[in-house]
Each structure stands twice: as C-alpha cells, then as structure tokens.
Amino acid sequence: MSQNINPQEDLDLRSLDTMCVNESRLQHQWYHNLKYLVVGILFGFVFIKAEVISWFRIQEMFRLQSFHMYGIIGSAILVAMISIFFIKKFKIKTIYGEVIIFHKKEFNKGQIYGGLIFGFGWAITGACPGPLFAQIGTGATVIVVTLLSAIAGTWVYGYFREKLPH
C-alpha cells in the first residue's frame, strides 16, 4: 500500500479487507492496557477450568467423540450473534464513544484454504491462538514451539499478503 494515501482512503480500502477497521484512534497512557492483561488472565483461568486448553478435549472434538468443545464453540457463536444484534439495534458505541461499524465481507476461496490450514494446525498441535498462553501458563512449555510457529506463520502471511489471491 502506498504511503501517500489519505486516512479516509485508507479506511475505505481496509473496510473492504479483513483487517481491523474499528481500531481506535485514541492515544492512551501505557497503563490503560493493564485492563487487557487482567481480562486476559481471567479468560485464561476460564479456559483452564472449562478444559478448552486440554489436548485430549481437542482430540475428542476432531475425532467427533465428544460434544464438549462443540458446545463451547457454539455457545461463543451464540453470544457473539446476540451481542452483534444488540450493537446494531441500539447503535451501541465503545466506552470511549466511538461508533462501531460492521462492514460486509465478500466470500473468497482463500478463506477455505486458510480455514483448512488453521484446522490442520489445531488438530496436530492441540492448540489454537486463544489458549496458547494459558497452555504455556499451565506448564506445557512445549507449546512455545506452537506459539513461535503461529507468530512465524502470521509474519509470512503479512509479508506475502499483497501477492496472494484474495
């Protein structure tokens, strides 16, 4: 992307893409991010107690042997659907008063390829990006390899993104 694009054109381009378009433009002090650390730690405890980080639960899911993980994922989807409905219906804003905008996304075959790669990685490693840190926190230090691989994969995608068919 060219550096000479004005902010509105940049927003228009990003709204057509899968990048974050609702990113806040507000500048905060560093300690404002501590709230995310606290929520992340609490979320990690929830993952541990719900057995979301269990390699065995993930294997059960991919072998279609248990409903446990499908129930958790289905519940998350239901909560997200209800939340989005209320955000749209009541025009709810962020806590800083910023408007939340939902943009239509067009389907493309890259989503299938990406989903398959993600699913294979999840099935092989027993980890997806959400629980990685909780797994490491429980002492499964081998997951650091998975974390580094996820970071490397994200970097490689970002590097070749403009050259890939979308």
- Tell me the count of domains: 1
Give the percentage of residues in beta strands: under 5%
Share of helix, binned: 55-70%
Shape: globular
Distance between the termini: 15 Å
Total count of helical runs of at least 4 residues: 7
Q: Indicate the radius of gyration in whole angstroms.
A: 19 Å
**Average pLDDT rating:** 86
Number of strands: 0
Structural class: mainly alpha
The helix-strand sequence is: HHHHHHH
Largest sheet: none
Uncertain parts: none
Describe this structure in words.
There is one protein chain. This protein is an all-alpha fold and 166 residues long. The protein has one domain. 58% of the residues lie in helices and 0% in strands. The chain is built from seven helices and no strands. The chain is globular and about 50 Å long. The model has no long low-confidence stretch (mean pLDDT 86).
